[in-house]
Amino acid sequence: MRVIVLALLLVGALQVSHAQEQDQTVVLISIDGFRHDYIEKYDAKNIAAIAEQGARAEGLIPVYPAKTFPNHISIVTGQYPSNHGIVDNRFFDTERQQKYQMGDGVKDSTWLTTLPIWNLAEFQGVKAATFFWPESEARINGRTASYYFNYSKPAPYEQRIDQIVQWLQLPKPARPRLVTGYFSLVDTMGHRFGPDSEQVKEAVSYLDELIGDLWQRLQNDVDAPVNLILVSDHGMTQITAAEMIDPAQLPIDNELFTVVNAQTRLLIYPNQETTEAQVNELRQQLEAMPNRQFVIESEAQLQALNVSQGPRKPSLILGVDAPASFGRGAPEEWRDGGTHGYHSHRDMDGIFIAAGPAIKQQHPLPRFQNIHIYPFMAKLLSLELLTPIDGDETVLQPLILTK
Ligand SMILES: [Zn+2]
To answer: Which range is the signal sequence, renumbered to this chain (predicted)?
Structure first.
């Protein structure tokens, strides 16, 4: 018995020393809109097998709002949207008097107010590469990753995988130790056809093949200790055209307010001359509407969702629950489909899977919020955190084999 225990301890020690002797590499892949239950629902065998070898969370809880840009930026900054700056896919800034929409950071990186993981790496002499990640082309803090591409939705997925593997095969001085990849197909199909559709099933199967191929090549063709982290930014839920609200029917005076339709929320900003009394008057009018399907988010609710004061915080936020949403375009064009961006609930959960030489097998791992991934990646890469963050490094610390 004692011999067995000793042998087990020895194996453990060898694993630890093997992982410690080399600088670890992190490949972070996002499959946009991949809901937490798609692995079983659509039988994603390869992804399930990777999870089996490492850790899989029961769900990855998105930050509010459960939209693509705020969540991708929270994953790579460890910050809530109020602190990293990208508070929705579309929003208004009352100080700048400008609207932001997805990707505007590329033209003006001051929309982002914190340090992404690829810059944290580069500042500490660790090369990074991004074959897409929202806002990864933006020159945040005056720089980008050593290797990056300008976003192109049609860029073939196989080519992205090839490039990721090729980067990891570069001679050591040129080789990145942090690589990100991004795939939008599952989200696109989820929006168009809903989460229960054949099209989402096919998209999941395709991505599952692709990720399986990447995993094989990381094992066989790459001579570096690579840890794969597979995430999604949010889940997906069914919406119906019948439940859509027409923002044009609401008593909002466009002379007084700038309205941003974020589909699951309506963001109402005061114009420069608009008074507090006029904001209150609108609030009362909206509250008095009979049979309204939306809520006016309270200050206490917003605080609980980590929305803090600032020029990007609307005066009023109207929120809805699925299957309702705010319709876009002409009502005759509204269609059933899928969306995300609601308050956190189970359908909004994404996935978190991590496997590699520095990661323990951990089953089950409870659901957790995506702001904790940043300090986890920093730890795997032996990077010091250079700025205060919202994420807590102790949440994923138990997954790390070596540190
Ligand atoms: Zn998304």
So the answer is: 1-19
Would you tell me which CATH number, out of the four given (1.20.1560.10, 3.30.1360.180, 3.40.640.10, 3.50.40.10), belongs to the domain 241-334?
Answer: 3.30.1360.180
Tens of pLDDT, residue by residue over 197-233, are 999 999 999 999 999 999 999 999 999 999 999 999 9
Per-domain residue ranges of the chain: 5-239+344-399, 241-334
Cα(150) to ligand 1 centroid in Å equals 18
Q: Is the pLDDT of residue 11 over 90?
A: no
Which residues place a Cβ less than 5 A from the ion ligand 1?
A: 32-33, 68, 187, 233
Which residues are the active-site residues?
68
CB atoms within 10 A of CB 166: 12
Per-residue confidence at 402, pLDDT binned at 50, 70, 90?
low
Task: Give the Å distance between the CA of 220 and the centre of ligand 1.
Answer: 31
**Structure confidence at residue 10 as a pLDDT band (50, 70, 90):** very low
CA 40 – ligand 1 centroid, Å:
20
| Reported confidence tier of residue 16, pLDDT bands at 50, 70, 90 | very low
Q: Between 3.40.190.80, 3.90.1150.10, 3.40.720.10, 3.40.50.11540, what CATH number should domain 5-239+344-399 receive?
A: 3.40.720.10
> Average of pLDDT values for 346-359?
97
